[in-house]
Structure formats: C-alpha cells, structure tokens
Amino acid sequence: MFKLSATVDIDVPFHDVDAMNVAWHGHYLKYFELARCALLRRFDYDYPQMQASGYLWPVVDCKLKYIRPARYGQRLRVEAKLLEYENRLKIGYEISDAASGERLTKGSTILVAVDAHSGELQFVSPSIVLTNLERACAG
User: Fold this and answer.
1) pLDDT tens digit string along 55-100?
2) Sign of CA dihedral 29, 34, 40, 44
3) Is the terminal CB of the chain with fewer CB neighbours within 10 Å at N or C?
4) DSSP helix/strand/coil, 78
C-alpha cells in the first residue's frame, strides 16, 4: 500500500467570497484540485503526464462536508491523500485553518481511467500509475 500525500497553502482571494465574506461553497472543489495536482506531481502523473500516457481521468464522484466557513484572506492548508489506486484514484482531502489547524472542510474525489482513444473505461489502473508510485515511494 502506497501512502502518499501533498499539502498546499492558499489564501482565500476576494473573488472567491460572497456578500457575507465567506468563500462560496463551489470554490472548495477548486481548492481540492490545487492539492490534487500537487499530489499527482509527487508521483509524476499530473494531467500532462496522464494525457501523454493515453488516459483521461475524469472525476466521477465527489463528496464534501462543510464544517466551518473559510473567509476572505484566511490562510488555508489543503491536504490531499491517496486512499486508493489499484482500480481508481480515490483521494481524500482536508481543508484547515493554516494558523490554528482547525478543520474547515473534508471530502474525497474518485477518478477513473478512460482510454483516450477508445473512450473505454479501464477497470484496473494503468501500469504507469503503479510504476510511478513505486518510484516515488522508493526514493
């Protein structure tokens, strides 16, 4: 079992908040995406490498649990953890206040491999995923 995670820090920008000075709920997916890309880069399989390998990885499931609001200018820590990789990529997320560590949001996404040429769903993750994970976790 490969255990891999990545963390990014972001400041909630003004254009992400509503009239109540709270980050609009839809932006949390963008924050997840920033952490997911950092995680994918940890094993050299970010979106350009996915595409070059001949596979697309659409998000087919997303879950979010809002616990506390994020506000304009607040520094957030967004962590992404690889939870599953053999048949799909399941990634867990936690968004917390960077200063206090208080948890604000948690969630997960599931991505599945689709052959870019045929459009066929792959029921097992392509070998490049395992190869890259082995390389990343060994070194």
Assistant:
1) 999 999 999 999 999 999 999 999 999 999 999 999 999 999 999 9
2) positive
3) C
4) strand
